[in-house]
Amino acid sequence: MILLAGGTGTLGRKVIPLLLARGLDCRVLARHADGAGELGPGVETVTADVGDRPAVERAMQGVDTVVSMIQGFGGPDALGARTVDRDGNLTLIEAAVAAGVRHFVLLSIDQAAPDHPSELFRMKYAAETALRSSGLRWTIIRPTAYMETWLALVGLPLVRTGRTRVYGQGKNPINFVAADDVARFVELAVIDPSMEGSTVVLAGPRDLTFDQFTAVVGEVTGRPARVDHAPRAMLRLLSTVLQRVRPVLAGQVGTALVMDSRDMRSDAGPRQRLAPSIPVTPLADVAQREFARELASRPDEGPA
Ligand SMILES: NC(=O)c1ccc[n+]([C@@H]2O[C@H](COP(=O)([O-])OP(=O)(O)OC[C@H]3O[C@@H](n4cnc5c(N)ncnc54)[C@H](OP(=O)(O)O)[C@@H]3O)[C@@H](O)[C@H]2O)c1
Prior knowledge:
Blueprint: E1 2-5, H1 12-21, E2 26-30, E3 44-47, H2 53-59, E4 65-68, H3 82-99, E5 103-107, H4 119-132, E6 137-143, E7 145-146, H5 147-161, E8 163-167, E9 174-177, H6 179-191, E10 199-202, E11 207-208, H7 210-221, E12 226-230, H8 232-245, H9 247-261, H10 269-274, H11 283-290, H12 292-296
Parallel strand pairs: 1-2, 1-4, 2-3, 4-5, 5-6, 6-10, 7-9, 8-12
Antiparallel strand pairs: 9-11
Helix pairs in contact: 1-6, 3-4, 5-7, 5-11, 7-11, 8-9
The structure holds NADP nicotinamide-adenine-dinucleotide phosphate.
């Protein structure tokens, strides 16, 4: 049995069919697992917060491998990186040890570090550290930013209205990876024992500024991207003002600033050498796929 914590998310929904196709039993844990629709034939669901230790312990029964894809950084009811990415993962790790789980696959993030300016990256690092010293067999996957996540946030308004907003100057190169490619590595981590004990950085084909990212979406949709930029000074002010009242939102704004200014480039070379058969999917292909329905339903227009 594979326990997929956060299996209802963007990545989780891509991982499940790959594991089912291999005949593996899947159990998904999330707060809204029951309302998540059909996740796949025979998939068990546990509706629980990862902070609910007894529920997490029950979900571990009979589990061989845990895949943690939880995140508390973004989304309408996100609880924050400290609560989910650090403490939630600590709960999963401790419960996995207690239940005699064999292997734990942790979804972390490229550049996770104890002194990173973004809390998310520090909390992921704390979870990595706990996992490495847990006594469990482990595999840590460190992807860059998911194309699908940012296509939904920044690309979809463009497709729907021809206009979008990026946070900051939009001139800083960032690496983006397709979540489909990441899912293939998660599958590999589950089935291939030679991955155990490794920390794998998963980068996509190109580093792109947000201005370039929106231009690619514009090309795919066949009309130029009209992009507004939220000024850095406004983001700094927002991040400070929100800190006490809306700390999760303040963390998101702070991370937007980091993404606009810190070196976020990465290299797909190592992952290609590790698993040459897994594609390094370009952004235009992912955008075509993600927006196929919107583009097809546009009156008098189709994909470029
Ligand atoms: N998206 C990116 O750009 C990116 C980049 C690098 C690494 N990652 C990592 O990759 C993994 C998957 O990312 P994703 O984008 O697929 O995430 P996602 O779509 O936001 O999904 C997050 C999942 O975590 C669950 N979750 C959140 N809070 C929870 C809680 N308190 N208790 C139980 N479950 C909870 C969510 O379900 P409920 O809301 O129903 O609880 C959902 O299933 C995460 O670990 C993320 O940090 C993502």
